User: Fold these one by one.
Assistant:
Number 1:
Amino acid sequence: MSSITYSERIKIETFYELGLTNIQMAERLKRSPSTISYELSRCQPYQAELAQANAEYKRAHCGRKTKLNAKLKQTANYKFNPNKPGNFQWQSVDDGFLMVVD
């Protein structure tokens, strides 16, 4: 299923303040109790706004990290510079272009 929305986080905060259990919250939101448990662990005491900021930060910083450092990037830009004559030429193919190295 998709990520928890901000409106769901507000509901979780309200349910938490009312003293509902994780199972009761999960049933009302049609989510797994473990999802509710994980969500409540984002910050103590639970606040929807902080939990949303935490989730957005984690999402922005997830995924594979680049191994391309500044020197390697500069080298690649130099070697495959389209303005540098004689290195390669562009050939049209079905949906785009293909780079052919001389």
Note: Strands lie at 88-93, 96-101.
Number 2:
Amino acid sequence: MRKANPVPLFFLVILTVNLALPQTAGVLNAGCGCADLLNELDAKIRENHSAYHIEIKGKRDKEYSENLSRLRLLAEKTPVQDCVKLLKQFLNYYKDGHLYIGQSPDLTENEKNVLKLKAEVIKRSEAELRSYFDKQARKLDPIEGIWFVKDGSRFAIFEDEGSKERDFVAVPLSGENANWDAGHVKAEFRKLSDGSYDVVYFDGNHFPLYPGAYKWGQQGGAAIRRGLILHIPPFSWGKEYPARKNLFNFIDPNDPRRPTIRIVDDSTILISIPSHVPEYASDLNEFVDTNQEAFANSDTLIIDLRGNEGGSSWITNVLMPYIETSSVNSPKYWVNDEEVVLSSPRNIRYFKGVESQGWLPKDLIKRLEEHPGELVPFNDPPKDAAVPPDVPDVMGMAKPRNVAVLIDDSIVSAGEAFIIRLMKSKKVTLFGENTAGVIDYRSTSGVSLASCPHLGIYLGYPMFAASKRLPAGGVNATGVEPDVRIDEEEKDPVRFIIDYFKSESAKKPER
């Protein structure tokens, strides 16, 4: 096990890490204090983050100040190597997975060499580990086994019985870079009461990173989705062995984030979308193009979004012709609300930087410059408010007749935006459980904390707010609710959905 004296974390938001931290204090001598970092973080949030102005300023000032004061006292006593944990505690106040602390340290070659020299090695052969997994099959924790990632790397996670500081450890079996030797520890895990895991993740230079959770309320920074995907934001590992896969619970064998499609029977298509990351748009386009006839002739399309990590909601546009209907349901969230952005020098620079991409409203930057420190509408007002815009009815395909969306409590961000878009369609029924609730504030941008540049700590914060009234009318407090709940104990939710539509069809009178 690496030795004492910790250092910061890595990506994403939410909870404090309880694992004992490896020694990096001697590697990074930042020459600054934790209180400096906390004060700068507070200032950057107040200046740039719309949620502070919508939900806190003038409403919860005393509570906010008391929390900040408490953390300042702790920061004065906290070594800078431990400070990221404290910064994450400060962000917890917002309960928003789109607000996070990240880290990308600027290491010298000597520091990299020191980290590699101190890196822990546990030599276990793949044959030995497979034998262990087979013998302990009935006792294995869900995290134990062999996992893979897109680049071909494979990792074994197994119990570390001799350690008081961690429950499980991951070592590479293949695919790591030349800076890694066989058995170098890639990650450490401690299981928590909600089934998630505290995690220390070692980057390519053996620097310890401390992922947080996308999902508010999840205790640890790592969690298993669908029994087959280990989310360690922003990484995803897929389970190779032992893994119980069937037609209704399948991931791509080479990339756990890649969408998959299955023709269940003559009347049902199942498409699974674990990620909205833009690189998978071409896969979805190819699926639809190759299976146009099956889509057009199916009675039921099942979209399995369980575990969707977000990304960009537009990647699923190719599915919309099979989902949209000419008449639409009334909206459930952000009703009559207007999307807003906060005017700050930093935010204005951001929008000027993306202006050439062509998606900004014509007068947005002008509005921001004319109203410093204020929340302004993102969209330009209609030229003639008395004349509604001419929006033609959307006429989608007649089939499939039913669109089922399978959702769970780990879907965030673009995955939730996609669901809210689908809810307009008369064809759509949501099955499962409430989503995570990470969408009222969205589209993150990053800004570095200058107080300790060597540590490479930065703040990620959302640029857009769905409404000035938040949290009223929003999604984050509850997540998107399903139309039909499916118990967690249900072993085959896809079969449940198929049977549901058969039952509903039988209730309808013949014409």
Note: The longest helix spans residues 61-77.
Number 3:
Amino acid sequence: MARGRRTLARLGAARVRFRTSRFAAALLFALTIAGAANWWLHRDQHTYLTGITEDFVALFPAPTPADSAATRRELDELLDLQMTRTAAAVAAARADRKTNVQRFYGALGFAAGADPDLPLLLALSRRVENDFRPYVRAAKDRFRRLRPYEIEPRLEPCIDDVRGDLSYPSGHATYGYVMAYLLGELVPERSTELLARADEFARQRMVCGVHFRSDIEAGRTGAHWLAFAIDSDPGYRLDANAAMAELRAALHLAPKAPRPL
């Protein structure tokens, strides 16, 4: 009997150890999955920027009050644009409603309708945009300026994907000018055309009645700050050098020396 009790005791202890080891393995597995999920969710955040937005937000003066004479002048400008905009102008503004680096291919020198294979450039542009969007959002949340058509009911926006969003600074203008500045570093031969395209890309938001002129101007100011900050990051320069080689080859341009990291 004593021997049997000792055997049962050893079996009981073995079961406890087995259950403990199973629990530890399950816990380790759960922690591994949680860690992997956290890495997946945050892998592309702040690739080239720090994510600290205070200095960026401090760039901007407060927009004029909704009932001010200055805002009234900007609203009247938008009403004038609405009165004179053509169907072709509306179509062009709608075509530019999405932030997409392909909208700058013509300014880079590609033929209309061309669809070059530029995976490195596309990935770079996505990382840049994902990086700076929280900065623009922080500024918008700081000033909380309403869209023009929310102040002036006679304005009829020609796009509808901005409802409920804030106005100042313009994220669309920020995107256009950031792309122009950074693409201009890759293909300096096209800098003039790229900046002209950014002006047009940004102004489309006025044509559609969804941004004040001062929103656009603030977007350009912010883009200059962001492009400088992004370009100062060695990781960005490494990725940009690879995208530059790819882009210049597609444009049949002479190779350009890589920029120092």
Note: Residues 23-44 have pLDDT under 50 and may be disordered.
